[in-house]
User: Fold these one by one.
Assistant:
Number 1:
Amino acid sequence: MGGTCRVKGVGDLIKPLPPCPDCWFVVVMPSVGISTPEAFKRYDIMGSPVHPDCERQEQAIRENDLAAMCTAAGNALEHCSGAVETAAICKQLNAQGAVTSLMTGSGAAVFGVFDDGQKAKQAQQALQAGYDQVYLARPVRGGARVLPRHAKKDHTPRREK
């Protein structure tokens, strides 16, 4: 569908929303993955103390209020996912100025939301010292836009036949 949406059910109920407030995301892939089926099994047993306020988050998006959107955010699966690096990554993102940081969906990636592009770029650089996959992203109106990476030119001389 593209753009900012609220998803309910098992991902089958999709409600379009206005664009996300202007922000930057730093996404970090931990070195240890998560088994989604195991995470949901643990959730069924343990439950979670985290209960995102989806209604408030939707209202904050409609009001273009990034701080309120982040305050209402949460991931009920993060607590019981078994992710061993999430807390440390969130701590680093917050120390770099993230408005909030959370595990994505069922993991294992972790993201920080930044209200300042320079802080986000600095956070990306800082986290690249400890993680191989650290990405800088920004929401765009109307859905995702994929930009090609600029491959480094190979300056190796070619042999003639």
Number 2:
Amino acid sequence: MAVLISNDAELDTLIDAAQIEAAVAQVLASEGVSRPVEVSVSFVEADEMQGLNRTWRGIDAPTDVLSFECDSPFDEDIPADESVELGDVILAPEVIAAQAPTFDATPAEECRLMLVHGMLHLLGYDHVDEDGAREMEARELAVLRELARLRGEDAGAVRIGPTTRHHDD
């Protein structure tokens, strides 16, 4: 696994590189991805995120996370020993930190959730309907609890709200 972390604006990423890599690795492991993959994780300012959101989703507002999928690690046409370019997860730490209290979370907790959320999008999860949202949230919670356990924290204390049910945003 290769994780390219980009932070050209030198923003507070809310979690460190080791936590970013651990979250990416845990999502991949939990989804049964064993082949080599490359993932880009970028941190951008709110105005840059707004521009990306406007360009790619037609929504002229900043958002917390965007994912841009490239190749699937489950694509049988790609040789098993060849590294797959999974895609890009783009995070806006300013937006994430501002919304964290709304979900009764710390900025670091919310950032981990948004990173896991973005990674699951790269692996094909979506939340356009209630069933998909429930499935995605269950996967998010399972990954976040395992990450907490690995950090030596109480996994049972990890809670997330209905974060993926934004149909019209």
Number 3:
Amino acid sequence: MGKRRMERLDPGLVHATVVRLADRIRARFPERHLGHVADELVTIAKKIDHEGDGARRRLHRVTYAARLGSVLILAATSILLLLAVRDAIRHGPDTTIEWVPLIESMINDLVFAGIALFFLRAWPERIERGRLLATLHRLRSLAHIVDMHQLTKDPERLRPDFVPTSHSVDPGLGRDDLEHYLDYCSELLSLIGKVAALCAEESEDALVLDTISTIETMTTGMSGKIWQKISLLPN
């Protein structure tokens, strides 16, 4: 059991880590809106944690229903084709009259049955994909919000020789607070990537995995820009 836990992200532990970060942000910056962003990430992580088993049970039920529907369609199509062939044989050997329309009807039935089977086969995957992509869209938007929070936190404004203009934005933070703020933004971005990775534990869909990879690459790049700012803070 311990080995199995090590081979995959634990949604409960990820959620607990996000909660701790949100508490730390609110304790140091109670008046800043960065805490609201952390609270939103807590909500998403909690939803993934609580809905994991339920989502898998729903997926199993939908998959079972899709397979049952596929079996019924195959059975109904087979019976209809057998009845059509039997009726054609009963009417005699006139192939021009009976077999040509029969073959056309068989082809139509097979085409429609194939379309129905393809729909049922992809139905569970589409439902799961839609749910996960909606969560990933929220996480991607959240990452951009975090990036907006750190955008105006420029360390050069703390330099003694910095000359502000009438449109310069005052971060309202001292050197130590600015370092903590940027560090919290970097941690938030990292945890957004981890929460997105939780979705990979529930799906092997190519589109879902590609979206997760995109979010992780994006948050890593944003975090890298933040650490460049931290390295430029005056001593």
Number 4:
Amino acid sequence: MKQISSKVFQISLGSVNVFLIVDDGLTLIDTGMKGSADKIFSAIKKGGKDPGNIKRIILTHAHPDHSGSAAEISRRLNIPVFAHYIDAALIEKGVGVREPTHLSPGIINWLIYNIFIKRSDRNIEPVLVEKKLSDHDILPIAGGIQVIHTPGHSAGHVALLIKEEGVLIAADLCANFVGLALSTVYEDKDLGVKSLGKAAEFKFDKALFGHGNPLEKDASQQLKNFYNKLIAE
């Protein structure tokens, strides 16, 4: 686990990151692909925490690389799953992808799509979403986590602002491999760009992404600069 702030950790599963919030127990943000539970638990143990203390799962959206192990982890630990109410409707049906999706421009996105996404399973194991989230919700975790509805990549995509930690879990709002870039696919790219601008208006020093590296300084300004670049193109 990589420590991001006093209460926030990032766990890399290779192609995707998940996140852990340490407070009154543990909160797991996203769950990786199907079959990731043991890898997540192992990383938590290596980080000196007990995965048995996970109290809840929050899913940023329905896509299988983020929600694929939610049902297994929820079942093994008997813990609730949270997600935005729009994507919760898919998650409860075992549907991981809302069609159609549209590929972002660029050779890297073309390669990622054709190697990892095109032939991947679009379905997940269904799981009950006990807590359905909405924009502006404040979750009583780590001093208050604000839910920011950021549709575009997925209609029910959310970013999570941990205010007291100065951290935004941006998920697939965009990616950050060799600099900020659009996510590989969107249901609605223009709406996704608008959501990026919405999130960038909040104040946070660090930002974490489902794919790529964290921004560990001046993150809200960096996202704002990226948004301004996109709308100027």
